[in-house]
Amino acid sequence: MIPIISYSQDYQSQYPVQLGDRPAQYILGNEDVLLITVNLWGHVKKPGIYSIPSNFGIIDLLSSAGGPLKTARLNDVRIIRKNQEVITVNIEEFIKTGNQDLLVPLQPGDIVIVSGSVSDIFARIVAVMRDLAIIANVAFLASRIR
User: Fold this and answer.
1) Is a pLDDT exceeding 60 seen at residue 23?
2) N or C: which end of the chain has fewer CB within 10 A?
3) What span, in angstroms and rounded, lies between the C-alpha atoms of 36 and 24?
């Protein structure tokens, strides 16, 4: 089974990848660029599995995915390593200070999770309640017609 890998259009044209039957931790792309595979989940424009150059950082990964959504909580981005270590990265603080020490290098198999803000969760709950109120209203009106 060949895994599905997505990249940005520019990256895909620069570094096409050939995969075998079994995914490797490292892949050698065109021009001898060493690639690693990472998963990106959550509040980004294009979440998915990405094969990126091994020297890419978390900012490069987020940029490849079209950037974070407005609802992203950038002060609580989590990286889950294969050894089950969970690392919290404060990208918001990096944006304010430019301090590169706040960024953690990515490793093969990392799962990067960009969580949503509390206001996003609240908005979803309100939307579900609104939809339920509309359904209840329609059912009530339908029962009065009979």
Assistant:
1) no
2) C
3) 8
